[in-house]
Amino acid sequence: MASEHHPGIERAPTVCGGAATVVRTRIPVWILEQARRLGMSEPELLRAYPSLRAEDLANAWAYVREHGDEIEREIADNESA
């Protein structure tokens, strides 16, 4: 179910371990943020993930701004896995 506070972003316990994902996809927000930090541009992300729209990235970046600690934890957890 999409969050009213974060349109376009959803969390479901059975999808990607409960991580915030872009609606209509199983793409976790933390993966998009990590790719952006590694230098991927928005056009590159849209090419790499054809199911994404520019609006999805805007929603993901808004989520990252408001949930930075959560995203940091998810990135760190997945780097150490």
Q: Can you describe this structure in just a few lines?
A:
The protein has 81 residues and is mainly alpha-helical.
What Rg, in angstroms, do the CA atoms define?
A: 12 Å
Strand content: under 5%
| Uncertain residue segments | none
CATH architecture: Orthogonal Bundle
Number of helices: 4
Number-wise, the strands total 2
Mean pLDDT: 92
CATH level-four homologous superfamily name: Winged helix-like DNA-binding domain superfamily/Winged helix DNA-binding domain
Major beta sheet, specifics? 2 strands, antiparallel
User: Residue share in helices?
Assistant: 40-55%
**Major sheet: arrangement of strands:** 1-2
- The end-to-end distance, rounded to whole angstroms, is 28 Å
* CATH topology-level fold name: Arc Repressor Mutant, subunit A
Q: Count structural domains.
A: 1
Structural category is mainly alpha
H/E element order: EEHHHH
Task: Please give the CATH class.
Answer: Mainly Alpha
Shape: globular
